[in-house]
Structures are given as C-alpha cells and as structure tokens.
Amino acid sequence: MYDVMSDDKLHEECGVFGIYSLSGKNVSQDIYYGLIALQHRGQEAAGIAVSDTSGPMGNLSIKKDMGLVSEVFHKEDLQKLEGNIGVGHVRYSTTGGSRVENAQPIAMNYIKGSLALVHNGNIVNASELKNEQMYRGLAHYTTSDSEVLAYEIIGERVKAGTIEEAIKNAASKLRGGYAVVVMSPRKLVGIRDPFGIKPLILGRKPASSENTSKEEFDESYTYILASESTAITSVGGEIIRDIEPGEIISITKDGIASDRGLCQVKRAHCIFEYIYFARNDSVMDGIEIHDARVNAGKALARKSRVDADIVVGVPDSGLAAAEGYALESGIPFALAFHKNSYIGRSFIKPTDEERRTAVHMKLSVLGNVVKDKNIVIIDDSIVRGTTMKQLIEMLRKAGAKAVHVRISSPPFLYPCYYGTDVPTAKQLIASHHSSEEVCKSVGADSLEYLSVEDFKTMVGDLPLCTACFTEEYPV
Question: Residue 144 pLDDT more than 90?
Fold first, then answer.
C-alpha cells in the first residue's frame, strides 16, 4: 500500500478503537465508522473483533485484512460481526513488516478465556520480552511487538485474579510508547504508556437525547476508547476525558474503574501528534489540534518574515499553519493547490519517473493564483525533501516569481523508536545537510524551520517528547 506522497512523510503506526454497549446493541458498525475516522493513522491493514457479553465465554468473531477500512469491510461483513463489545484497528507497519499476519486485532484463547487486543506504538524492549517468553514456553514464534504484548498479558493472566491485574503486571515490564485496548469476554480495558507518548481518549455515546453528567455512569450508554476524539464524535459520541499517562481504565456492566498505579511524574507527549499525525478536528490532552497548528504558523511568521504576495499551504498538513502565518504576517492566504482525493493509497510506482508523475496526480497548481507572485509555502516537515522539491518546481512552472519555504517543525535529525516511522538518519535530509544546503536542494529562495522553543506557543506547558529533533529520548 502506498500513498503517492507518503515516501516523503512521517507515518503514525496505528489507530485503536474499543467500544462496549452496555445495553446490548451491536457495535460493529460503530467500530467501522470509528476506524474510518482514524484511517489517516494507518492505511495498510484494518481489522475488527467483536463478542457478545451475554453469550458463552470466547464467542469471538474477527475479520482483518490488508487494505483500507472500506476495502476490508463490506455490509455483509459487518452483519456477520455481531456483538455488543469490540475492538478495531488500522495499521501502518513500522515493526513486524507489512503483511496480513501482522494485521490486528490479535485474538487469543487461553486457559482462563479469550482476549482481543489492539495496539498503537512500539515496545522497545519487545525482543527481550520475546526471548523470555520463548524460554518459558509461552510463545514459540511472534512477528510483532503487539503479539509479544498479548502473550505477556496471557502469561500474567494465568497467575492474576483479573484481566486488569494481568495487564498492569504486563505493562510494568514494558518500555516504549503505547496505547492498548483489550477486549475480554466481559470487559473493555485500556492503558496508556506512563509517558503519554501515545494518545488514548474515553468517550460515550448516549442511547437517547437525555443528558447526564459526564462523570455519571449510565448503563444505557455505549462507552468508547479511541486514539483520537474525532473517532468518538464521528459515531455520535461525546468526549469524557483523556486517559492519563500510565492509567489503566476498565469498563464493565458495573461501571468504570481506574487504576493509576503506573502513573508517574515525568511525561513526554509526542509533539508530532500536534504537528501532523492527529486529524485537524481532534482534541488531544485538552489541546485543539487546529489551534496548535495555527499557533505554529504564527510563530513561524514572527520568527522569519519575508516580503511575499501570498501564503499557501501544502494540503492537507500545511493548511492550518499557513492560516496562522497569514494571520500573523498580514500576507493574504491563498489556495494554490488542488488535491485529488480519489487517487487512493495503492498506487504503485516502481520507477522514479512514475513517483514524480504521482505527485502531479495528487496535487495540481492553480496557475492564476500563483502566476507572477512571490509565495510563502508552508508544510509540516521536510523528511527526504523530494516532495517539496517537486512542489516548488510545479509552482515555478506555473509562473511563481519566488518561493519561500517555511516548515512548522524543526529539522528532523534523529530516528523515533516509539511507533513513529521516522527513517534512519541517512534518509533524513537535514541530518547531513545544513539548512542552506537543504534550501538549495529543494530549489527554494529561502527556508526557515520552527524552533523547539516555539513548541510552547503550540501546546503551552504540555511536557513533550522531542527526541527526533533533540536526541533527548524519554525512555
């Protein structure tokens, strides 16, 4: 699977969705639409697992495959996935490889029952845990850190009195960034890594229009755990709150329970959720994503003013920052690119020439907007530099007089180990070229980046993981 511009972008690894209808309603359709709302977080594979809490233990139904959510599931599939509790997943692989065996949910039966697990992130000590599991005879072969996590929970569940206790014991051994939702026959359990690197949000969907306090448990409600708020609101739900870093939350017919035993003082939320990963209409850790990106654009304008006629953004990731740059600088904002939304993500390009053609198919320039103009173009990042170079060539061919590049993140210098697909330093153009060299390479008239210090303008005092810019890894 391949986005026509994806080889020059960072990728989030996955999106997770869990749901429990306490009134017994079928949840497969809500999972489907929740995954559609999370599709930007992973386009290689999708899966849904459901169960009926009133039925026998282990009556789990599952379907998963390679492809977009709309390609994997059809009406007949959802009709067969009957149950009032379930989990769903969209995947972009950074570990384990891109193959159907690594699609999620991961479903397993064991001596005390069954579970289905969905996972976003990366367990950096997965190899160590895997070797331990093989030594104990718990697992013979695993292909991903998600499977390692599932086996770890099962190993602990044999000894623990509850699934929550097993998850807590397993999580205490993990190092990395993760958000996990586990469906057991009668419970939906979520956990977020102690640093808060990966997001996880709690919401609910009312059975009627009558409002009750968000803190009040209601047996007629459907409760949801998801990577982003937009997945909850897309199915008619409302946000309750973000799961705290290190918190384990359990939803049962008797209520919602929270265990904060793994919570810690030090936190490090992934800055790239706010720069690029999260959908523009999401709210994460109390921060409006769109507002954060607009504020980044404003900070860029204050840092590096330039004499220009218009400000344009690269769809869709650069538009909010471009809006902010225009507001702060007083330079008019304009739409310079038309985005073809129907290219899809399976366009195959085996040659460099076809890769170049693909960018032109994805984006086209509005010639009358850019002709004879001095332009400021805003994007969220420069990874390899290939896409920006082609966009600048397109603008110049359409008659632009000058193209000044402004990037709403600092230069990428180091890889990420927590479930973000940042390539090796050799593939990061800024890691072995100065800003002046990058500017010349992409064909810009000038180039400026956001600074790490400007993140405070974006997200206030939220503690951040900025390792891909600073090499200061929290784990």
Answer: no
